[in-house]
Amino acid sequence: MGKTLAEIKQALDVKIGQQLTLKANGGRRKTIERFGVLAETYPSVFIVELDQDEHSFERVSYSYADVLTETVEITFTDEVSKMA
User: Fold this and answer.
1) Which residues form the signal peptide (predicted)?
2) pLDDT tens, residue by residue, 12-25
3) How many CB atoms are located within 10 Å of the residue 70 CB?
C-alpha cells in the first residue's frame, strides 16, 4: 500500500467493489481474518461488506491509520491470483 494516509486512500479508491481478504489484529495475539468486498471509502475510514455465509454481521469499518500501522492487512483477490 502507500506510505501516507492519502496514498492509502487513493489506492483503495480505485479498488472499490473488489473482493478482499482482511487480516486484523484482534488483541492478545489473536488475528481475525475476514472476507468481503470493499464497499466505500470516506475521508477517514473505509467500509468492507462481509461475506454473509461466514460472518454474523454485515459491515465493518477501519481507518487508513490501521493500514498504515499494519494493524490491518488487506489483500485483494485479484492480487493473489496474479501472484500464483
Assistant:
1) none
2) 999 999 999 999 98
3) 10
Locate the domains of the chain by residue range.
5-83
CA dihedral 58, 2, 64, 80 (to 10 degrees): 20
Q: Extract the residue ranges of the chain whose pLDDT is less than 50.
A: 83-84
Q: Could you say which of 1.20.120.160, 2.30.30.100, 3.30.70.20, 2.40.50.100 is the CATH number of the domain covering 5-83?
A: 2.30.30.100
* Residues 76 and 17 sit within 8 Å (Cβ to Cβ): no
Does the pTM exceed 0.85?
A: no
